[in-house]
Design a protein that fits this description.
This protein has helices at 9-17, 23-41, 49-64, 107-113, 157-165, 181-187, 221-231, 275-290, 307-322, 341-352, 355-368, 374-397, 420-424, 431-436, 464-477, and strands at 44-47, 76-80, 118-123, 170-175, 190-193, 213-218, 261-265, 294-299, 400-404, 440-448, 451-458. By secondary structure, the chain is of the alpha/beta class. It binds glutamine (GLN).
Amino acid sequence: MTDNYPLTIHEAHKKLASRELSSVELTRAALKRIAEVDPKVRAIVTITDDLALEQAQQADELFARGEAPSPLTGIPVLIKDNICTRGIRTTCSSKMLENFVPPYDATLTEKLKACSPVIVGKTNMDEFAMGSSTENSALFPTHNPWDVSRVPGGSSGGSAVGVAVGAAIYAIGSDTGGSIRQPAGFCSVTGLKPTYGRVSRYGLVAFASSLDQIGPLTQDVTDCALVLNAIAGYDPRDSTSVPYPVPDYTRCLKPDLKGLRLGVPREYFVEGMQAEVETAIRQAISKLEELGAIIDWEASLPSTPYALAAYYIIAPSEASANLARYDGVKYGYSYAEPENMWEAMEKTRQHGFGPEVKRRIMLGTYALSAGYYDAWYVKAQKVRTLIRREFDQAFEKYDALVTPTSPTIPFKIGEKVDDPLQMYLSDVCTLPINIAGVPGISIPAGFADGLPIGMQIIGKHFGEETILRIAYAYQQATDWHKRRPDI
Ligand code: GLN
């Protein structure tokens, strides 16, 4: 533990393995940090301190016997509160699930548990992962540790902040349109959205099933690779998970980029982008060039401007179907003493869901209704095909694409809550990646006015190794990812 901030996974693992440090010490330090800082940033919904100390003791016993199963053994982790954890409340930051205690573990949780981790808590998020600022949490908003009057991004804001302040050594998030990468960018941590199908979604509370993907938020790229090693892979319980072998993602990490071809799609430098963001990203890309990459500064993905519109048809459509199950009968909140069945459903949904969730259900229901289906949903799916094809074509020419993670630095809390369209624009650079199903990583790439700027690197389907390699080389040559908020 370096004063307030924890070691990375790979640093901590060395010390645990050599018995220089115990998992109990590491866990106590994380819990102390949570007690000190979380009241200021509010990243965590449920702190599982008893469980954490128990798991830490078990991990120490494994190390003592020389039987630690993984580099994640004994390492404190935070899990986003839309991933089911048996016996631990999983709220989705919604009133609807405020008291929901899952009777089973998500595949993600099972896979982590197989590593003997230390689960320190569940993190705050936009309700049902709908949002870009964590202000849509029905419980409380989370604050950006670089300036607590600003948002941490979303929807995995709690997970990003947890890593940025050292409440845990790493965290797990989910990303439907940017929810790992955008908060990673806003908080200056490393966040990866894997290829659709790479990580099982079983036990992830569904938002938009064809876009949702679970991934890691970490302090550096090596840690990201280590976590991906543990969580990736085929799962018979998720029919969209893909039965490809999982490589050791740390083996591709090399400090140079000789011969790699990178495209910089011009459509991602959108109108309204902050000048400081554009400057920082262009500088970061020049750094990649210095490291040996061949840059095409004039790459193009012409359908990019339609991605936002297509996303806000497809995601709400799927959400409206997925959220139909919350009727007060099967899960969670139930309106007390209704007059009849219809009132039970209506009032449950009226009181159980927040305004953004209701907005999405209405948009989705409308787009899927007979008479409008062809004009909206089918049209959006056609646009999706075009976007996906353009990515496929681009990856015939380039090994990866490089863009800003978001068009702005973190904005003020409250600044965009009354303007959903402005809020939706936060994800213009990230959501095309979910539409295409390809992987993307956000890494720290600079600051403007003391606030973080993220760079996004996009790979082809199952091209995680290439984007991790590029991100790793960049981090070997820069130290943005080592800066910590003073909180
Ligand atoms: N901000 C986007 C939305 O509100 C993406 C959210 C996400 O990735 N879960 O839908």
